[in-house]
Amino acid sequence: MNSTFDVNGMRLGAGQRPYIVAEMSGNHNGSLDTALALVDAAAQAGAHAIKLQTYTADTMTVDVRHPRFQISKGHELWGDRYLYQLFEEAHTPWEWHEAIFERARQHGLAPFSSPFDRTAVELLQKLDAPMYKIASSEITDLPLIRLAAGTGKPLIISTGMASVTEIAAAVDAAQGAGCTDLIVLSCTASYPAPPEETNLRRIPVLAEMLGVPIGLSDHTLGIGVPLAAVAFGACLIEKHMTLSRGDKGVDSAFSLEPQEVAALVTESERAWQALGTTHIGPTEAERESLRFRRSLYVVSDVRAGDTVTEENVRSIRPTGGLEPDAIGTVLGRTFRQDATKGTPLTWDLI
User: Fold this and answer.
1) Are residues 248 and 311 in the same domain?
2) Is residue 77 very low, low, confident or very high in pLDDT (cuts 50, 70, 90)?
3) Summary mean pLDDT of the chain
4) 102 Cβ partners below 8 Å, 6+ apart?
5) 313-316 and 295-298 beta bridge pairing
6) Taking 90 as the threshold, does the pLDDT of residue 167 lie above it?
7) What would the pLDDT profile of 222-251 be if each residue is shown by its tens digit?
8) In this structure, are 252 and 295 located in the same domain?
9) 327/198 same-domain check
10) Could you read off the pLDDT of 99-108 as tens digits, one per residue?
11) Does 83 fall in a domain?
């Protein structure tokens, strides 16, 4: 299993700078023009990839109005809605995919998608999608995982709701079908997700358990959680994106607006750079600051024979003189020679 791999000329994986995926989902609000504008905005914000979801209402569920197919009344965003009607509204028409992929490639973005059945994989193969994402709810659909893995493309698997056993089974299925380039995403499949249930401490646990790079599929509000995830080793961050949360799209309430995506791109790289090494001690960047530590200096003109006092010797910046802690030793001694204000106090002066 490879710890890093290339997509669209960028290196992904363990130890690499965070790879930022803008998830379009249903935030196109049924408009191809809006979908293309989202691609433009993602590129301008500096995202590395734009992700779709490739399904129709019929490939996801059946049109049955029964409580089994109905979202709970208390759901913050989609309460009481039936699955079929929600998927009808949120899906990205298949005939849009080619235009969206083409626009993304014009910008240098990597366009890819989450397939939800065989026909979706077939469509995405025709479009030469550079990788595939398995959504959290599909992590137990091992035949779908094997199908996507069998394409030879890199695979991203989201783990919302999944147990350790289910995650291990999904990874085994992917690897068994020939996948060598895999990233597993820590995820809380709640929309929006409470930060206190995001459990970022599981990121290094998953990395050690699975032996693959780990990222984060995040549905919390804002960018604080994904930035913290970078500190725990997340190499890929996926966030939903909307042109405006005010448009009241199906996912817009927990999506980032373009300027927030831009901030995520910038700040996640800073967070990654800040990880540095385990070195403790002065760094190259601190070389100049080292010159301005305190030391003992002559702070008024003195003559040979004068007594060292708190009035003529003090701890000041910069370095060059004796360490500040030597003050107790030098006070009361006698100067051997004349010294002017601003002279570093050294042992040969007293």
Assistant:
1) no
2) low
3) 95
4) none
5) antiparallel
6) yes
7) 999 999 999 999 999 999 999 999 988 888
8) no
9) no
10) 999 999 999 9
11) no
Say yes or no: 268 and 314 in one domain.
Answer: no
Q: 307: domain range?
A: 286-349
Per residue, the 3-state secondary structure of the chain, as one string, reads CECEEEECCEEEECCCCCEEEEECCCCCCCCHHHHHHHHHHHHHHCCCEEEEEECCHHHHCCCCCCHHHECCCCCCCCCCCEHHHHHHHHCCCHHHHHHHHHHHHHHCCEEEEEECCHHHHHHHHHCCCCCEEECHHHCCCHHHHHHHHCCCCCEEEECCCCCHHHHHHHHHHHHHCCCCEEEEEEECCCCCCCHHHCCCCHHHHHHHHHCCCEEEEECCCCCHHHHHHHHCCCCEEEEEECCCHHHCCCCHHHCECHHHHHHHHHHHHHHHHHHCCCCCCCCHHHHHHHCCCCEEEECCCECCCCECCCCCEEEECCCCCCCHHHHHHHCCCECCCCECCCCECCHHHC
Considering the domain boundaries, does residue 62 fall inside one? no
pTM of the model: 0.89
- How many domains does the chain contain in total? 2
Which pLDDT tens digit goes with each residue over 56-76?
Answer: 999 999 999 998 888 888 766
Say yes or no: 301 and 192 in one domain.
no
Q: Please indicate, yes or no, whether residues 239 and 327 belong to a single structural domain of this protein.
A: no
25-36 pLDDT, tens digit each: 999 999 999 999
